[in-house]
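EI: anyone free to look at a 189-residue chain?
SC: sure, send it
EI:
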Amino acid sequence: MNFSVKDILTISMILFAVIDVIGSLPILIDVKNKVGKIKSGKVTLVSGLIMIVFLFAGEGILKVIGITVNDFAIAGSFILFFIAMEMILGIRFFKDDSSATASIVPIAFPLIAGTGTLTTLLSIRAEYKEVENIIVAILINLVFVYLVLKYMYWLEKILGPGGINILRKVFGVILLAIAVKLFRSNLHI
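SC: here you go
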């Protein structure tokens, strides 16, 4: 084992920026309001499993089924696009979500362990050879994700309905821009 505090901190910061669970708070609150309680432990566990499996087998899995990383990112951009449209316009696209499925789609994937996170993990894996540092950085981020999800009701009370509505619209536009950027940067015709 070759742990490097510097590498762990660098990778943690990169993943923190890409996962952006604080920026996703309006989306998380919106999903919680639609489906009831979000199971923070389940979301964190599934997100972590997705990230770690993808770290080791992601590129291989995509190759086996004939999908490129770009195709994967474009598909994720569509999901993010529709979530953003829900936030901005108040239109519901995901009508049949129950609290059981909401913990997986759209929260664990694509919000937390989404295409941005997964493609970032592939890039980090290419740059940082010590996988144990990447795994520690993933675990650090998962602890933060869990805490935000667990105490979301408290954050919701602090912001109030008006603050949440403003954040929902603002982050809806930001999420829409991220979806468009993800689509555009991965579309190679």
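EI: The first helix runs from residue 5 to 19.
SC: 👍
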